[in-house]
Fold this protein.
Amino acid sequence: MIIDATFVTSAARAGDLPREGLAEIAVVGRSNVGKSSLINALVRQRVARTSAAPGKTRLANVYRVARGSGVPFYLVDLPGYGFARGGRDAAREFEKLGRAYFGRVSRVSQAGQVGKKTPGVAALLLIDARHIGLQNDLEAWRWLKATVDRAAIVATKTDKLSRAERLRALKANEAAFEHPVWPVSANTGEGLDQLWKLIEQLLNPNHNNPRRSRPPLPHQKS
Ligand code: GDP
């Protein structure tokens, strides 16, 4: 399947984000969790770069992505939250950033209710498959669940674990987050097809075919 992906903008403020009204999938996670690698692996080209200027926080890098005949959407790469400090500080940092990004999205949605089709907003929380239930990841997930319409958890770098370890870690993370976790590896490509299905499901939450086998539903805000 052909995947078309282009870099749109690196936004410093919410006001710089595109207003085209496309659905958005925001990718969030700790620094170094493998966000850029996963985005590149998903779109099968090097569109995402690891932070070229460390210390210079940008709000978001935005990519416009279309897969096959699918409707284009924005893949939004939010800066990683700190992993050295952890705990409350990292959670606060993430909340500040998240509010700037997701707050603007909910304003777009509200404006869209007047006649225009509302753009969907979903988030993928990336966690490292090897690290079970880290405090700042749990905090980020709690915040996302309360804030975003739809969200799912993706465990990266599964190739760093043996088959048996992979299963054990997956189960432990699912227990810690009390939610399904999608295992992927940007290096081997494992789990990428399933991740695309998940993305399509997040983009079209009302278009599930119940007869098709599919992974468990991502979190949906009630
Ligand atoms: P980001 O800071 O979240 O964007 O993380 P990067 O994509 O830059 O990845 C951080 C480090 O993890 C880099 O050294 C990558 O090569 C490595 N990495 C990312 N994804 C994978 C993966 O699936 N498998 C392995 N083994 N390494 C990975």
The mean pLDDT is 82. DSSP finds five helices and eight strands in the chain.
